[in-house]
Fold these 2 entries.
Entry 1:
Amino acid sequence: MTHLDARAFPLRTAPGGATLLASLFALAGAASGQEAVSAEDPGAAMSRALIAEALAGVSGEVRTFNDHLTILASPWMEGRLPGTRGMELAKEYMEFQFRASGLLPAVGSGGESRSFRQPFNLGSTNEVTVASLELGGVSFAHGQDRDFTVTGLGVGGEIDAPLVFVGYGIEDGRDRFSSFGEETDLTGKVAVLLRFEPMDAEGNSLWTRRDGSWSRRAGFNGKLQAVADRGAVGAIIVNTPGANDARVSTLLAAGGGGRAIAEIPVLHLSAEAGERLVAAGTGGATTLPVLRDEANAGAAVREFQGTARMVAGLERRAVVAENVIGLLPGKGALADEYIVVGAHLDHLGQGSFGSRDRENAGRQLHPGADDNASGSAGIILIADKMARDYEAAGDAANLRSVLFMGFSAEESGLNGSNYYANHPIAPIGKHVLMMNFDMIGRIKDRRLSLSGAETGAGLQEFLDPIIDGSPLAIVQPERMSGASDHTSFMRKDMPVLFAIIADFHADYHTPRDVSSLINRVDAVHAANLFYEIALGAAQRPEAFPFVEQRTRRRARRNTAPAEAEAEAETSGGGAPRAATVQFGIRPSYTEEGIVVEGITPDSPAAAAGLMKNDRIRTWNGEAVDLAGFSEKLKAAKPGDKVKVGVTRASGEKVELEVVLKARGGGA
């Protein structure tokens, strides 16, 4: 095949210094709603001309990639969060492209019942059906960008009851601190409590040494249990004004926050709305900052005047995710063996979990252009090219079947790929190679990381001439990168290849991961690299027997010490915030919590007594899901002692102390 070379594209400079390639990138942003050119702008006509000329100056493959990328990363796709209309549109788009390329539906028993979709249960979520709050004629608006949200930390209900301010709602803090008086009785009342914990004038915790960090007493779990134990019939958590934490300007997503902690309705109120609530409840006699200062000193219980009306409706809604799978049937003697070429199609939606931008998490679109609209667009390109090759090959050819997959729910724990690996359309032993794309859109200095050559016997030697022919600088890390969807297949003793940008960027898992920043030319180079590998592997008479990974191998090719590995994703973050501690489990996500699929020998988890099939529910008393578990690990230090609440397969509930170790075995 002919490799694209960006140096062959003349980048003529327009007045003002704009290049045609920059105009092409601007086109993607405009199409996805991230940039716009006003019709009144005198430069609009020139911009349109430059964009048109830029598109004419690149190959058809780059233009096609641009189309796929721009559509998948557009606001219309809503950040491609499983369970949303936007993710459904993204699946429809990929299925349409697979059909157009001539791929066959891969899932089902045959005939018209076959489908491009492989559904699997992703647990359930809370849907808020009704929400209102009123006190003394003052009404509050529901919504994440408004006054309050109904959270999943409690249950639904309709309440008419007086309000009682109880400071931070902390039962037993440091130095015998308590937000409650000895006789505090909340029976039949709604508790109003502040977020976080006692803080100094700069908004930092009085109980920790690091700015912007909080002790475990700041968590919702202990607070809500404390007010419920005192008879409260509802709770209103108010963002604490002046706290040195970006979350103080955000609200929990409607229905979000985790699983129910207390059997009472729990609302989350903004600081601004909290000011209005205090004014209505005290007749203007005091303010929220004054109450905060009193709460910092200890018990600050204050009865509000009037009766509040709270209505919270919550319904559990099952979330069913789907992998999109297209089959390119093989030919001849190799047709019953399969190569998987995949990428995860999902992303973070509004960033309610997994966002690295605390200020905008849960409230601003995370387009996921690089992660992973770029990889998904690459899969669509490869599928179309290989389908045309197979059609031209004739019936006498020997070619392996190829499965093109758009995985769902990768961001919340490799759920889609893990489901397929355990529920394949053909025996898993017939799958001879898995190739995974995750973030190929922001290639810098032509550097692409390609790991996994050591997982198959003869795979490196097969790759060498293909790599040598690529215009990209292929970086082969010292060890297998992970975890992304290839990990699910490697656990099944399948050789894997994983491609990802070699140099991470700060826009990863933020609203700034937009299509206007994508390096389309080199992304197509990456897609063509995988195309040549897949086509060559499909024709190769011998497979690549799996090689179990026991030791790290020496770095190859363009590997520099600080750049030897492009870390892949975890459910809650990425390489820029990788955990420095070892816990020692292989988890997966279920609606019941974090299920332990495996335990690393001699790890902290093993020493603490965790067992396979345990379900982790709490971290230091705070309810935790898989995304939150990842964030806890990233914030932890070697030597930290963590109380982990676990439910055994038998139903027994235990609490285990895990002493975290540094990665690599340190204390």
Note: The first strand starts at residue 104 and ends at 105.
Entry 2:
Amino acid sequence: MYVPVYMLKENRTAGLLISLTFLFAFCLFCPSLFCSQARAGKVHISKAESAYRQARKQYDRLARSPRLRKDRRAWIKVINKLRLVYLAYPDDKSVAPKALFMMAGCYRGLYGYSRASSDLKNAIMRYEILVEKFPKSRLADDALYAMAELYQRQGKLYLAKDALEQILSEYPKGDKRSIAARKLKKLGFGPPRAPSMVASKDSKGRAMIPGAHVKSPVIPTRSTTAIISSIRYWSDKDYTRVVIDSSRAVSFKRGYLPANRRKGLSKRFFLDLSPAYKKRGLKEEIDIRDGLLKAVRVAQFKARTVRVVFDLNKTEKTRVFYLEDPFRIVVDAFGEGYSKSCPVVPKKPHHQKNRMPGKPGKSTGNLSLAQQLGLCVRRVVIDAGHGGKDPGAIGPSGLKEKKVVLEIARKVAAKLRARRGWQVILTRKGDRFLPLTQRTAIANAKKADIFVSIHANAAPNRRLRGVETYFLNFALDEEAMRVAARENATSKKRISELKNILNDIMKNTKVNESSRLAAKIQEDVVGELRKRYRRVKDLGVKQAPFFVLIGARMPSVLVEVSFISNKEEERRLKSGRYLDRIADGIVKGIISYARETEMAYLPSGAS
């Protein structure tokens, strides 16, 4: 049983009274925590229980002393004593939960004096460990209620709601059920849906989630718990992308497991997803065996934690990020040799002496510095937006974006091959659906030098017209936010939250190169269209967080070629000549970017 003993008052005097209240209430109502095995006469006490009692005595001295209660070091000594008990007996179902609960209580009491947010976080962490590791402990629902109070204190009401709903769904017979229900109502949340579900079991018939149920096959008992529904991957020689699909947003922690030669296990990288359940019937092992990853395995690691393990082979270079609407976690693995090579024809006779290495702007041997750095262009991936079940925007007369952009993409590919002899890869050659994550994965797997995604614009205001080109960055204006939201099939609110996703990714994205490429394509598309058509509006180069560009390892842009929602521009998009002009502009822009990039790094005197 848990008694709410810290009201977390703002003044120090109240903090002293709170700690005293905690001591006496804790002893009065929770005697089993201190003397659960005490009986009249001789009683055998386990080593674990004895160690716990010693730590409790140290806490008793602290709680009785006004001087010690003001001393942070005294609190930390007690916490460390309890920590040693837990570390010595981490699997003792009687002592370990009590040690965790007391540690959390100490951090919570310390906060009454320190006002340090780190103390609250440490308290919550111990409560979480208790609930995850000992879900059947009689202290689990007490820990959840304590977490709800702390989350409420921090203003994180939805996290408080999650903890309270977990009490109602997983501990319906516990002593915290009624008080949790009242608190939910007080916070303005209705009761959670009743769990009339089928128990989830593993392949051997054992209950996967003790005390919890899931609706067969994929709906969780509570709206706050995620279901890991599928794992997909795309792979090539030096690159693999794995996408983990989840029914809702879920937190994830990353870690590594060392190799074990005796058991034949390679080094493993894992993600722990929580709170989450594994969908029944989800394949538990996916063989990849592409040289980078041997396999991906998934299991219900703990009651509300799904672990996804990646068996590494020839890579330790991994990157993890997430995308929303729908929520999915993306894992990229790169080979040691993941780099672009440019198969160029030597421009100088073999007898010519090499220039001295080590000087900026000079070449070594027959390759310019641009070629050595992989800044040349020889392989381009063209992405026709939407496709299959996703028609994209639809014009006033019914013209579908997916059809228009595929035709433009085909024309761009043909023209690039004819004019430059480059390798050009289309993400889709026909009317088929491709997830946004797969489009970038194709570009990465093929080691593309450039990635261009082609789209037709649309807006509620049907008078809007023109051409605009985007590169990946944070949106700077409402219109860019609207376009990104439409292409991402999400909301503007979600777009504004993408900063959390992009902060780490942008460090490895060629923003400057993408900006230059976007400028070249924008200039040439507008220029080509204006040669033949009137009223072609240049909307310029913009930046926004497009999902299709996230994770690309090369300069990448998204071109909005015209407004299909505008009657005049929709009519033009039906014309093969108009599409030819657009394709010519995109091709000229790519070639111009490629020439400028290589010329910038040619040695002095070369042409």
Note: The CA atoms of residues 270 and 309 lie 4 Å apart.
